Amino acid sequence: MKKTRITAGIIVVLGIGIYLVAGSYSVLGIITAAFFAMLCMAFYTLAEGRKTEFVPYFPENGEKGQNIEGRIVVENHSWLPVFWCRCRLDWQNLLTGESGSEDFSFAVPSRRTTEIPVTVRTEYSGVCVLSIKKVEYTDPFVLFRRREKLEMKEEITVFPTIHEIPREMFEEESYNMESFRYSAERGGDDTGEVYQVRSYKEGDNLKQIHWKLTARLGDVTVREPGYPISHAVMIFMETGYLGEFPDPDKMDRQISLTLSFLKALSDRQISCQLCFYDFAKDRARILHASNIEEFWQTAMLAVRAGRSNKGGSGLKKFMENAEDWQAGHYIYITAGNEIDEVEYLRESATVTVFDGNMDLQG
After folding, report:
1. What string of H, E and C letters represents the secondary structure of the chain?
2. Structural domain total, the chain
3. Residues 190-210: pLDDT tens digits?
4. Are 180 and 328 in contact (CB under 8 A)?
5. What distance lies between CA 66 and its chain's CA centroid?
6. Is 360 among the domain residues?
7. Which of 46, 59, 207, 274 lies 20 to 30 Å from 108, alpha-carbon distance?
8. pLDDT over 60 at 261, yes or no
9. Are 15 and 23 in contact (CB under 8 A)?
């Protein structure tokens, strides 16, 4: 484009030179017409594309290692046709850092639309963010150009592979409902455990009356139900790392292992919860998956969880911000190495640690 403008400028200068030498009015007329045409092209470039809209159409979910087909519809709501437009589509996998880009050039007739087919392929699970940040418009002769900022953004969730967890990887009896623990500081509504025995108060349920003690003590006595403070199993997915993020293969393997364990425990009807700290939302997550619909909703949140390498571990942030998160058995899954905070979990329950080196396909 720069060469085109230089060439046009040289032609105008040569024309002026010829006019000065030959003194011909016809040459002057040609020069004037060329200058006027260039001026018109400059004004046209400023005006075109002002009512152009970019609308992305992509699937919400995709598969890793497979082409994700989509399109961008460019709508021209103006009577001025767009003779030539150029843009760059950038995409990035927020989980692994995998990225790519593709340039597109197209024209859009007046009051019409143009479709741009787009194919994206990522080898890892995660959230693929597609964006166009600027477009460039030019005149029919490509003499002038105008750049304009654009905020087009689309997200595609790419789920990991869900593997069958071998039975020998965990002892099923370690993840049973007997792993419930109860608070020693407060009562609840679980009649299977007694928090304390006390005198009757107005509003107590008559079914809670301990009739034998009432007859023996001569005072109406009730059993106050216990308050469960833990599920049998907590699967904790680490989201915070110090320094550089682990390799993309390990990040992908971590989320695959996390969701595979969650599905395996849920299928066996073992009480469990998936926990992690979402750095993007700055909040602790405690999720349950009692059926297949809840599982995929939980999987969506886990894949889209914000990761960080600029602070402490996700487990530390989780323990500082979450309530009632204790469990009878912990499964700690990380893409890096085991952290010091895991020792805190070992003080109260059994902890099983899996890292990004584990391959369920092996």
Report:
1. CHHHHHHHHHHHHHHHHHHHHHCCHHHHHHHHHHHHHHHHHHHHHHHCCCCEEEEEECCCEEECCCEEEEEEEEEECCCCCEEEEEEEEEEEECCCCCEEEEEEEEEECCCCEEEEEEEEECCCCEEEEEEEEEEEEECCCCCCEEEEEEEEEEEEEEECCCCCCCHHHCCHHHHCHHHCCEEEEEEEEEEEEEEEEEECCCCCCHHHECHHHHHHHCCCEEEEEEEECCEEEEEEECCECECCCCCHHHHHHHHHHHHHHHHHHHHCCCCEEEEEEECCCCEEEEECCCCHHHHHHHHHHHHCCCCECECCCHHHHHHHHCCCCCEEEEEEECCCCCCCCHHHHHCCCEEEEECCCCCCCC
2. 4
3. 555 555 667 777 777 767 666
4. yes
5. 18
6. no
7. 59
8. yes
9. no
Residue 358: which of 233, 245, 235, 255 has the closest Cα?
255
Q: Which two tokens stand for residue 116?
A: 């741009």
For residues 149 and 131, the answer to whether their CB atoms sit within 8 Å is no
> 149 with 172, same domain?
no
Q: Is the pLDDT of residue 153 over 90?
A: yes
For 163-176, the pLDDT digits (tens) are 888 766 655 445 54
222 plus 208 within the same structural domain? yes
| 56 has pLDDT over 80 | yes
Q: Angle CA(50)–CA(56)–CA(58) in degrees, nearest 5?
A: 175
- Looking at the fold, whether 215 and 138 belong to one and the same domain comes out as no
Here the CATH number for the domain that contains residue 109 is: 2.60.40.10
Asked if residue 101 lies in contact with residue 89, where contact means CB atoms within 8 angstroms, the answer is: yes
Residue 330's nearest CA partner among 314, 348, 316, 312 is 348
Q: Encoding tokens for residue 290? A: 């009692």
Domain assignment present for residue 6? The answer is yes
Range of the domain at 118: 52-159
